[in-house]
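#struct-queue
[09:14] JT: dropping the first one here, sequence first, then the structure tokens:
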Amino acid sequence: MVSARRSLPRDAPILTILLGPTGVGKSTLLNQVVGRVVSPPGPVRPCTTHPVAVASARAAEFLRADPILRGVFVNAEVAVGPDAEDVVGPQALVDTPDFDSVSEENRRSAELLLHRADRVILVLSPEKYADSSVWEVLDTLRRIGNVTGCVFNKAEGEVALDDCTRLLREARLPAPLSLPRVSRPDEPLPPELRRALRALVAPPRDPGALLAERRAALERWESEIRRESVAPWVDSVHETLDRVQRELARHSGALLQRIRERFPLELDEALTRELQDRFLEKIQRYDFLKEPRRWLSTPFRWLASVLSPEPSQARERGKAPSVAQWLTRAYRDRYLQFLSGVVDDLRAVGLEAERSTDPGLLWPEVKEPPPEEATRGLEAVFQGLQGQVEGEATRISDSLSWAGKIGFYGSQAVFNLLTFAILVKTGGLSFGDLAAQGLLSPYLAKLSAHLVSTGEVSAVERRLEEALGRTLEAEVQPLADPLRRRAEELRAAAGTPSEWRDAVRRWESGAS
């Protein structure tokens, strides 16, 4: 507003507005000033839905080009001509839409006009002078300092007029000109009242001095706003940004531990029920001692058939789920629930950030990925884990190959053996029991027990759990990216509090 005011030439026409709430008779007053109906009044509210102006041709052209009012005066009605200039002089007299209108567009137009106006004639009535909306607008007008006159319209006695006069005096505003109610739009006021009304709206003798005074008043007002409202708001924005970044850092730092608590690599936990209920029954169907290669692939072929949604069809097609697929199915519900909890925490960060600044800054809503997308991400995590398991198996197989006893089985053999050792170790069975029952050869039982007793299985499990945690962390961290980007954008836009204060000092130095 001040920038636009600075750009006005000293000979710019004065903008005088008739401002008031719904139904106080602003249109009738404009008609009384002009002496003819230029703004038709009516019983339907709002009556004036766009500005109606009386102005000289030069003033009308200036208003339409005004950078602040350009949008407001697109549909404005402007009465121009010599008679208009004879009535209002070198100014534009505007009947404004109601500032308490039910129409948002009307309220916006009235607000722009009351801030831009050089002179405001406040129009009140017995029914409206005590409305809260009137005094909210008056509070703004007193700060701007552009109220030059008041009219108490439709007066029907002294009580309301005296009360309105008292309230205006307490607000350090001029006493109102009292005008009676008129029954028709073209009904003239008594000559002495019409002269008083025209004198009230007459332009100042020194328009240039008024414009300079208005500019200075606006600069004082904006300086006060920056000091009392904007500066504390800027400080609160930076406090909010610091808090958001601390919360995001805390979330990021705790995420890996949170994942490890919720997602330990527990093959037994996902499969113990099936192991206890069905495993012995299943494996007794095979003669493992005669078919060692078949034995080595049995655990995963069986697990795939149990966990496949269509096991019979999968077997027929020979496309049983991969290890990553059945692990994904085992962990899917837990993972989706975990994501939901993470998203709830991040949403709470954004909501608190919005509440902590007034007016609040908008923060993006953190959204859960669709279940199908989350499931694909989880499967990719387990595919990476399967690759690491195979690497561990290759390492162990290579270390044992010198004995020439199991080298021919390859890495997949040790991979299955390791997994079987984990299942047995955590499922309450023992390798000795299985060997005694003829379910494992003594050599394989001894080798499995060795891998467990030496800590090899535990070490592999630990490394796999760490790998799972890291890959899940990388998968989940991007959920916080919208909040991080928003914080970075606001930080870049707001600068630092000291930079903002330096900019204010430069602005106020240019205003003086």
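[09:21] JT: and here's the second one, same format:
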Amino acid sequence: MNSSLFSFFTFLLLFFTASTSVDNTVYNEKNARRHLHFAYGSYCNVSSLQTWTCKWCSHIPGFEVKRVFNVNNLQCFVGYDKTNNEIIISFRGSHNIPNWIDNIDTISVKYRNIKGSEVHRGFYELWMLDLYPHVMPVIQSLINEKKGVNIALNGHSMGGAVAQFAALSIYDYTTHINNRIEIACYTFGSPRWGNKMMANYFNDRINNHWRIVNEEDIVPTVPFRRFGFYHTSTAVWYTDDKSLTFEECAATDGEDSKCHYIGYSAKDHLNYLNVYESCDK
């Protein structure tokens, strides 16, 4: 085989085996399931995440763990998904009594210096005070190491709310360094965390957010709207998790009546895409 023909076949091989970024602009259940595995994995113990041997890790081969953080009863991990060419940040949901205390802290505080903003103090402080000082430098380092690679965050329950605060911080950083990479969020059973002004503020900056809700999951119904809290977009409400039937609600309104329901089920909170949250093998 002559050298030019060899070079051509080498090019084709590299072209077809190279990692390609996933499309987060449309809802794709296969991709949502991948992020659910990440989000469920964040509940597993630190050593199984560091070695990527947790129950859910086997579903996502080719993931390189950068750091696992266990800080003040909180846990998350940061890494690079080689197969899908994405930086991944995953946040654990409520796992212990201190987490639930933060969940029920519905006192509102201002978000940075944004006029008219009000956010759930508990969730906001979990990110800004507890996790940000440790996690954000690692994210920044990975952004600069993986030039131009997009970012996807995920989290279940409380982890979904924290993931959205983290997404805003990453947006601010990438804007500051003039690196407008795509930032996507996949959240499962996320509670409300900000007022209407903040929901709009988030939606204007994070264009690709799939806020997935299972049947009558009680957690996305709190804190209540009567306390001034609103959801972010876009909601994907699974009306039947066995048949995986869902409604996709308006991207411009996180409180679209099409996805309104009466939340009463704790069981539905632990069973997303017909997969039960557990780290037991």
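[09:30] RK: nice, looked through the second one.
[09:31] RK: DSSP finds seven helices and twelve strands in the chain.
[09:31] JT: good to know. The CA atoms of residues 119 and 194 lie 4 Å apart.
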